Amino acid sequence: MTVKPDWLRVKAPQWERVGNVKEILRDLALNTVCEEASCPNIGECFQAGTATFLIMGPACTRACPYCDIDFEKKPKPLDPTEPERLAEAVRRLKLNHVVITSVNRDDLPDGGASQFVDCIAAVRAVSPNTTIEVLIPDLCGNWNALEIIIQAAPEVLNHNTETIPRLYRRVRPQGNYDRTMELLKRSRQIAPWIYTKSGIMVGLGETDTEVRQVMQDLRAVDCDILTIGQYLQPSQKHLKVDNFITPEQFAAWQSYGEELGFLQVVSSPLTRSSYHAEQVRQLMELYPRSRG
Prior knowledge:
By secondary structure, the chain is α/β, with parallel strands linked by helices. It is built from 11 helices and 8 strands. The chain has a single domain, classed as Aldolase class I (TIM Barrel). An 8-stranded mixed sheet has the order 1-2-3-4-5-6-7-8, sandwiched between helices. Strand 7, helix 10 and strand 8 (264-267) form a beta-alpha-beta unit.
């Protein structure tokens, strides 16, 4: 087994605070991607009182070999009480910024767009000053469903690119690189005021040139925010890590992304798509946009 380098060591959290967040999540029967996807930053985020809520799960209709979320061809029907329970968690945790993501629900005609809309509305009802970020699946290219989500007016729309085109068939077999770019492009066209965001994981065999090309492609569709982080193998049954990227290389990608014109680039070994997501509020103050 490849030994993790020192820069991937995670500081132990204060479990009293972590336990409080977990207690709220259990009480409200909510899932988080922090737990379901074995995120290495769970301690830090829970300690800070934040979490990325995973709706319509915890089982996913896709079995991507890098992801630790369970696969299920026919997941359970949507729970109509989930939006209200999620909103109550936002209220109890006093979140200034909330990230709402989901499993892929390819079994649903709209890919779960209506559940995203209901969750956004529920949060707005109890915590109108909380900014909302949605991290959505590709919806199988259902652009009407995408428009439904955007019309609910989340401040940030995030859709992860995950990897370079050459590795898509191996890493994201049911995904499509061009479809991902089209989703991000259409999001800005539908709502120019929205902040779009995407993320990639590295360490799966991509080259520096290929990573830079993805960054160029994302800027070509006017993506605002980019996250780049090290892929870590959740278990022996998942894709193996090809190599561990140095902090210096992550810093070089951050500098290149800033040169390309991203409003924000978060690039480090432990970066994940929702890591320190609340910092987008500062970005919105620096680069305000009107909905017209």
